[in-house]
Write a structure and sequence with these properties.
- The chain is of the alpha/beta class.
- The protein folds into three domains: 48 residues, no CATH class; 285 residues, TIM Barrel, CATH 3.20.20; 95 residues, Roll (Diaminopimelate Epimerase, Chain A, domain 1).
- It contains 19 helices and 21 strands.
- The strands form five sheets. It has a six-stranded parallel β-sheet. A four-stranded mixed β-sheet has the order 3-2-1-4, with no helix packed on it.
- The longest helix is centred in the middle third of the chain and has 17 residues.
């Protein structure tokens, strides 16, 4: 069946069997009361994590440890996420969490550090006097838990619905960090949203062992986060006597990327600190540009590092919302080095292929908020839109299939209440392959 769509600007197109068509006639017509744009692509997020955030109580924006404990006591969840030491004035104490009579891990909003009670530490078989689990220690603890498939399926469905709510029709997702790859693959098997899954690699041994899975893309967590003070810096933090953590030694990182190159595998590497970026760029020195390797975050980068990214023809994947939500925290962590923090416009101005994303559940997966933040950084609306559509498609090798409203491409599109870039905008409807999968009107009526 051919269906003609037309928006308030008289922009029109035909969809046939889920594909944009050049046909001049149609069997049906739908006039939409809004402005049509290509479906958004969130090029770095955690679909399972977002879903878990939707179906478990959140600790976000709670003003005190007392309020966190109230939520923890009223819930039966083993893992709760979202507390922020910048709000509550420090970390929750293990002694307080030990008062909860079940295994419990409280994860900071960034996802890079958590505080566990004794019952949780026992089932995870970890010794920790203060209950603090950072980076690989927390990942290993989470991997030790037996997946609850029914609960995870509920989370995945909730995550998909949340992406559709914000006009996101494709997501690049990293969920195998603390879940088995086979579990993730099964969970995503019948979703409508397109998922470009990254296989998370924690070590050289794991890279060699998982080659049999023939992954298209691997995810490397090179360092941590500024919020948890685990992002690896060239010099010490302003508010902490340390430089952060590297999750790989230099030789190991070089060898993993070498194996990826030899096997035609794309590398998506998380690097937040300028020290981590130095190590990663050295490891990428002899990489194959055709594999479209990417660096995720790049929250600190000096001019010579940006130049090197361009010379190596590496893509980047940035989160404009961080520029707004991390502003106060970042100033405390790195002080005068804020001059090289969030250099997103400089990266784009240097001609580096740049996609935008949310890192949900760290941020709400709302590209409209991301575009608003990008504008605040001096990036124009059309460049921001391209970063949420065309560039995301490019980074998953699908630029010929999605990211534009064009004959022969997948009919993914979103209807907005106002022209892109205007204040007060919202998603009115999301269409996946020409099918309406989310509607603001339905929510209002419900």
């Amino acid at each position: 069946m051919k269906k003609l769509f037309e928006d308030l600007t008289s922009f029109k197109f035909v969809v046939e069997d889920g594909i944009f068509s050049s046909a001049l006639t149609a069997d049906r017509k739908e006039k939409v009361e809004g402005y049509i744009y290509p479906g958004f692509i969130d090029s770095h997020a955690h679909l399972v994590g977002l879903g878990l955030k939707k179906i478990t109580p959140s600790l976000e924006d709670l003003p005190s440890v007392d309020e966190i404990m109230k939520v923890a006591k009223s819930s039966d969840a083993m893992i709760l996420r979202g507390w922020d030491d910048e709000i509550i004035g420090g970390y929750p104490e293990k002694s307080e969490i030990d008062l909860i009579d079940r295994p419990l891990l409280l994860v900071r909003r960034c996802g890079h550090i958590g505080i566990a009670n004794e019952k949780f530490l026992r089932i995870a078989k970890i010794d920790s006097d203060d209950g603090i689990l950072r980076e690989s220690k927390m990942i290993n603890a989470l991997k030790s838990l037996k997946p609850d498939h029914e609960f995870l399926k509920k989370a995945v469905d909730a995550g998909q619905k949340e992406f559709f709510r914000y006009g996101v029709t494709s997501v690049h997702s990293d969920d195998s960090s603390d879940l088995p790859h086979e579990t993730v693959k099964e969970l995503f098997s019948d979703l409508k949203i397109d998922v470009y899954e990254h296989l998370h690699i924690h070590s050289l041994e794991e890279m060699e062992r998982l080659l049999t899975l023939k992954p298209k893309t691997i995810k490397l967590l090179v360092d941590g986060s500024l919020g948890a003070r685990t992002a690896f810096l060239r010099s010490k933090y302003d508010d902490f006597d340390g430089r952060g953590l590297l999750n790989f030694n230099r030789d190991e990182l070089v060898r993993i990327i070498q194996i990826a190159n030899e096997n035609g595998i794309q590398v998506a590497a998380h690097a937040i600190g300028d020290g981590a970026l130095d190590v990663l760029l050295d490891a990428f020195a002899h990489s194959d540009p055709s594999l479209r390797h990417r660096i995720i975050h790049v929250q600190m980068a000096w001019p010579e590092q940006i130049k090197k990214i361009g010379e190596l023809k590496i893509c980047v994947d940035l989160q404009p919302q961080f520029f707004v939500s991390d502003e106060k925290m970042s100033k405390e962590r790195i002080g005068s080095r804020m001059k090289v923090a969030y250099p997103f416009k400089a990266i784009i101005d240097n001609g580096i292929r740049t996609a935008f994303s949310s890192d949900a559940p760290v941020e709400i997966p709302d590209p409209l908020l991301g575009i608003k933040a990008a504008i605040k950084m001096g990036i124009d609306v059309q460049t921001a839109l391209k970063a949420y559509t065309v560039e995301g498609a490019f980074q998953e090798f699908k630029e010929g299939n999605k990211g534009l409203i064009k004959d022969g491409m997948i009919a993914d599109f979103v209807v907005l209440s106002r022209p892109l870039g205007e204040d007060g905008n919202r998603v009115l409807a999301t269409y996946k392959r020409g099918e309406k999968v989310w509607s603001y009107r339905t929510i209002q009526e419900g």
